Every structure is written in structure tokens, then in C-alpha cells.
């Protein structure tokens, strides 16, 4: 049986899909799931949908870290979505605060651009790409793993 905190989530959110992965520290992938985002793309609806996704993939709450890649600008400390002209409802959204309250997990939020590159030297990332196809959700999960140093 796995101990609390031995599992990590990676989630890639775009306007057209939400891709998620749950794996352990030995790089064994347990669950992959692709879903469509809520049609409104409102921050609250995406927060609820993402929380439900995490809870459905990890009903026993064995993970304590979630890395999220978002195709919108994020503040320098990775807590607030800065928004865009195309999605004005996402301006200054405290997305990490909302998710931490709902999930009681460590949340790392990054802009989708660059998170694959940032991971290139990490042990987790190198182990994962030797076992599976490279993906944004795996990259951000490894980044979160390194960031919180489980």
C-alpha cells in the first residue's frame, strides 16, 4: 500500500482539453485522463471541474502535489493567473489559492510555455520519458515534484 504523498498529479489545461496524469515517485503511471474543459471556461467552473477530476482520480487522497500547466500568463510566484485579452474573466485570478482550499494539496501553477524545457535535467523527467511518451502534464508534474521536493 502506498504512503500518503507518494503520488503526484500533472494537469495540462488549454481551451480545448484538460489532460491529467497520476503517477508515483518510481515513475509508474497509474491513471491518465483526457477531458474537455467546462464550456464557459470561467475560472470558478474550471476550479470545480479540476477539483472533481483530481478527487475522482485519487479518491483516497494519496497524493499531496499537483502541477498545473495553463496556457495563460501566470504571476512570477506561480499563484495568480494574470489573464489575457481573449479571456478577460481570467485577469488576476487567485487560482492556486482556490485549488489549495478545495483540495488541501500543494499546487504549482506554470505557464505552458517553457515547462517542458525547464524539466530537461530533472531525474523524474528523465525517468518518465524513458518509459512513456513525453507530454505537458508529465512535465509539469515533474516540475511540481522538484519544486516541493517530496
For the largest sheet, list the strands in their spatial order: 3-2-1-4-5
- CATH architecture annotation: 2-Layer Sandwich
> What structural category do the secondary elements indicate?
alpha/beta
- Relative strand content: 15-25%
What sequence of helices (H) and strands (E) makes up the elements?
Answer: EEEHEHEHHH
> What is the CATH homology-level superfamily?
ATPase, nucleotide binding domain
Number of helices: 5
The profile of the biggest β sheet is:
5 strands, mixed
Using DSSP, what is the number of strands?
5
User: What is Rg?
Assistant: 14 Å
Helix content: 25-40%
Structural account:
The chain is α/β, with parallel strands linked by helices and 150 residues long. The chain has a single domain (7-148), classed as ATPase, nucleotide binding domain (Nucleotidyltransferase, domain 5). The chain has helices at 43-57, 95-103, 115-118, 123-131, 136-148; strands at 7-13, 18-24, 29-35, 63-70, 106-111. It has a 5-stranded mixed β-sheet with strand order 3-2-1-4-5, sandwiched between helices. Pfam families: ROK. InterPro entries: ATPase_NBD, ROK. It comes from Prochlorococcus marinus (strain MIT 9211).
